Amino acid sequence: MAALVQAAGDTPAGSALGLSVSVPDTYKGLIEKAGNTCPEISPNLLAALLKTESEFNPKAGSPVGAQGIAQFMPSTWESSGVDGNGDGKRDVWDPEDAIPSAAKYLCGLAKDVKDVPGDKQSNMLAAYNAGSGAVLKYGGIPPYEETQGYVRSIVALAQKPAPIGKAATPTEQAAEVVNSAQEMIGTPYSWGGGSANGPTTGTCCSPNGSSGASVTGFDCSGLTLYAYARIGISLPRTATEQYAASEPVKPEQAMPGDLVFYGSSPNNLHHVGIYVGGGWILNAPRPGTQVRFDRMNAMGDQFAIARPIPHHSKEA
After folding, report:
1. Alpha-carbon distances, residue 181 vs 138, 256, 268, 302 (angstroms)
2. Fewer CB within 10 A of the terminal residue: the chain, N end or C end?
């Protein structure tokens, strides 16, 4: 637990509440209002914060002293708590005060780190977890494993679409791709493994002689094939084939859900991962590893970013 309030998730400002987080009816109105406090946050981001911190429990406490639905530390509450319901009291245990206070605190951190290089929202989330001082000191997300994992995981949580009774938008589809891959974190790498239905045993052999025949899991393109199948889009099997079935995009236009390819040419691609934002990908890296988050530049031969051209499966 950080000395401040821990981090929440992120989603583009203005995203509809319910896009990714199921919120108790009691708090929907409060979150919808407070989530528009400043442009850097949204109702969905605030909902992800409260779910992450307390599972919407207004009486939650932690061993280190964090309190209430938003898990404020007492010192932070003293400086950032507001009387949200106008009853003359600032009560950390009252969601009508704590929810707008969490929004105010997020907006303050966004201002604190606005000049730090890198993804603005990821820096804001890192400040929630580690403090704005640490983000300023390191010029971005601090090199703390807990903070880095926290930012990655919460971004994915906030972007997860909720079941809805209408056709999903491209943004919602992309979020579902990311979420489907994230649900497979920890699944073993298996050369040739993975299908539209999930992990499978693989084949023999990788360039270094590793066999996936006895391992149930994914290789890199098996994971991307599976994630896109979740939204009814059928991708071919290999990284090279998937690139051919995609439209290249400029790095500055990359969006979560896009595919990041590695290799020397369109016909010689050896790896593919799913972009999740902030310079990170979800991928099945190599034999002996598991599905995980990695820095986008962890491999030195990044070739291109591309967006699959929809070719829907028969089940779509």
Report:
1. 30, 12, 24, 20
2. C
Domain boundaries, the chain: 25-159, 170-308
Q: Would you call the peptide bond into 205 cis, given omega within 30 degrees of 0 as the criterion? A: yes
Respond yes or no: is residue 107 known to be catalytic. no
Given 283, 297, 311, 312, which residue is catalytic? 283
> Chain-centre distance of CA 45, in angstroms?
11
Alpha-carbon distance of 268 to 283, in angstroms, equals 18
**Cα radius of gyration rounded to whole Å, the chain:** 21
- Verify whether residue 312 is a known catalytic residue: no
Architecture of domain 170-308: Alpha-Beta Complex (3.90)
Q: Count CB atoms within 10 A of the CB of residue 117.
A: 8
Domain 170-308 in the same topology as domain 25-159? no
Catalytic residue among 36, 129, 271, 297: 271
pLDDT digits (tens, 9 = 90+) for 72-94: 999 999 999 999 999 999 999 99
Residue 40 is classified by DSSP as T
CA distances from 313 to 200, 216, 303 (A): 19, 24, 27
Q: Is 85 a catalytic residue?
A: no
Query: Active site residue: 44, 123, 129, 220, which one?
Result: 220
What is d(CA 59, CA 63) in angstroms, rounded to the nearest whole number? Answer: 13
**Could you report how far apart the first and last alpha carbons of the chain are, in Å?**
43
Using left for φ > 0, alpha for ψ between -120 and 50, and beta otherwise, residue 50 falls in alpha
pLDDT per residue as tens digits for the range 85-128: 999 999 999 999 999 999 999 999 999 999 999 888 888 888 98
pTM of the model: 0.52
